[in-house]
Amino acid sequence: MLETKIVWCSHNDANRAGGCQLMITANQLRAARALLNIDQRQTAELADLSVPTIQRMEASDGVVRGNVDSLMKLVSALENAGIELINPGVPCSAGGRGVRLREHVTKPKMKNIKQPKTSLSRMLERTR
Which residues constitute the domain of residue 56? Predict the structure, then answer.
């Protein structure tokens, strides 16, 4: 029988250790989507998951529970899009869980997804 072991670690620990499974809460998932300015459909496309799967994950109470493969796809897709998950035990001045957007990150690459139209006033602000 295959045993799944969940390990708590920081993003840097995962890189040094050759990768370990990160935990994510429903609140972290919603916050990550907000930082990336993407909806559930775009998140599903980014992680190669279904929209109902993303909806179930976000409806979770606390830590997202689900298929290990789906969780790994989600965490990997968010990290590739520039999201850093902050888990308990990671040195942080405020403590607790959270998410942050890494600096100098380009927009996530998604297949054939129309980005929201930029308003004329925003376009004018950008050209100034």
Answer: 11-127
Distance CA 115, CA 66 (A): 29
Residue type, 16: R
**pTM, 2 dp:** 0.64
Question: Is residue 31 domain-resident?
Answer: yes
Q: What is the CATH number of the domain that holds 52?
A: 1.10.260.40
pLDDT for the residue numbered 48: 97
Backbone angles phi, psi at 113, to 5 degrees: -105, 125
Structural domain tally of the chain? Answer: 1
- Give the Cα separation of 41 and 52 in Å (integer): 9
Displacement of CA 64 from its chain's centroid (Å) = 12
For residues 74 and 29, the answer to whether their CB atoms sit within 8 Å is yes
Residue with tokens 């888990």: 87
